[in-house]
Each structure stands twice: as structure tokens, then as C-alpha cells.
Automatic annotation (TrEMBL):
Coiled-coil region list: none
Annotated keywords: ATP-binding, Kinase, Magnesium, Metal-binding, Nucleotide-binding, Serine/threonine-protein kinase, Transferase
CDD domains xrefs: RIO1_like
EC number in record: 2.7.11.1
SMART domains with a match to the protein in the record: RIO (SM00090)
Family (UniProt): Belongs to the protein kinase superfamily. RIO-type Ser/Thr kinase family.
Lineage: Archaea, Methanobacteriati, Methanobacteriota, Candidatus Methanoliparia, Candidatus Methanoliparales
Name the record gives this protein: non-specific serine/threonine protein kinase
Gene3D superfamilies per record: Phosphorylase Kinase, domain 1, Transferase(Phosphotransferase) domain 1
Organism listed in the record: Candidatus Methanolliviera hydrocarbonicum
Catalytic reaction(s) noted: L-seryl-[protein] + ATP = O-phospho-L-seryl-[protein] + ADP + H(+); L-threonyl-[protein] + ATP = O-phospho-L-threonyl-[protein] + ADP + H(+)
SUPFAM superfamilies the record matches: Protein kinase-like (PK-like)
Amino acid sequence: MDIKNREIDEKLARLRIRDKDSDSRKIWGDVLDERTILTLYRLLKRGFIEAIGGAISTGKEATVFYGLGEDAREIAIKIYRIETSDFREMEPYLAGDPRFDNIKRSRSGIIYTWTQKEYKNLKRASNAGVRVPEPITSMNNVLLMEFIGEEEVPAPHIKDVDMALEETFEKIIVNLRKLYTGARIVHADLSEYNILYHHQPILIDMGQSVTISHPNATSFLWRDIKNLSKFFERRGLEDLNEKDLFNRITGGL
């Protein structure tokens, strides 16, 4: 084992990380900068995390890991990569949101704000009755939330399951209406890649979600509707009227 791998293994051991094969070690090596290590230590010390497992998913900006939280509850640990995330793509979704007018414009400042934004969006959505992963807490570039799945196996995306098309589509529209009229936010990046299926559809990845007062909220909603309609039409659902869907979701607001 070379020095770099040994150093990573030592960090993983201190963080109670259980999965240490070569593939996992590489993934952890990509996300474990000193600031992230310190953040995870603090979450461990405060009892939010008991153990950390392997990666559930890896995206362009973040990696999600399986974990155990308080009372051995299954949790998802989402870590935004500070050094390699393209924070410039985040700015259009932060600008115009009055909740984040005074953010620091540094790379880490924007990523920390983005993480906090996703936590707050999930909280608002959950409080409005939208089926999303229940948020637990966030700190710097780390977001803890409900694990969607069973016994360490994550739930699939809707693109990967056979489902009752009309019933599933209707449940998604109901969720989007609650999101808009109750939480007063727009998902802004909705597609078959951002909806899980675990007994029902579950909306995920809400860092980019904006309030309905955001100057681009309406165009983002139209884009969400078009993406959703195209996917379900490819699956065989017919007669989807995007204008009617828009009116159903917004409820005349």
C-alpha cells in the first residue's frame, strides 16, 4: 500500500467509514479535503452520524454515501466536492433568491450556501407534504437526510422501474402542486434522473430549486413539465397537455 492510500485509510478509520475497498478508497480520496473531514468529525461528535458506508451515487457536483445515524437509523450523507464542483453553475439559482442575498462569493462560500439551500428546500417541501427525503441537518458542504431504500440498497430511479404509468404520473403532479402552492418553490431540474421510486415517486436533488418569486421560476417550471411529459410519453402515456399540467400545478397562483 502506498503512502497516499495509507493516509486515506487512516482518515477513513477515524471517520468510522466501513467500506474501504480500492474503488471506495478512490471515491473518498476525491471528496476528503481537510474541511470536509473536519465537518464529518463534528457531525460524528454531535451524534448525527454513527457510521459511514459506501457510495450510493456519484454526480457531477456531489457524492452520496450510505450511513447510520442516531439510533442506527439509515441515512444518506451527501457531500458536495469543494475543490472540483463548478460553483459558477450554481450562481444563477442563488441569484434572485432573497434567502441568500448576502452569500460569500468564494468557491467554498457558494458551495456551503448551496448545501444549506438544498436542506431548506427539502425542509419546506417536506413540511408542505411533498414526498422528498426527510432532511436531518446540514453543515458546510455536508447534507444528512433520510435514506430512500432498504437494508443498504438504494431505491431505483423511475427510469429503471416498471410502474403503473398513470398512477405514478398523477402522484408526481400532485407532489409538484404541493411543492408550488404549499412550499412555494419550483424544482427547476426535474427529470427521470431526479425522481426515485420506493412504493411511490420521491423527488430528490433540490439544491437548484428556487422560490416561486425567483425571476426564472416560471421558465424553470415549464422546463420541468416538458422533461416530465417527454419521459412519460416515451413510456407510452398519451394525451399530456403541458398547458393543463402547468395550470394544475400552479393552481392559479
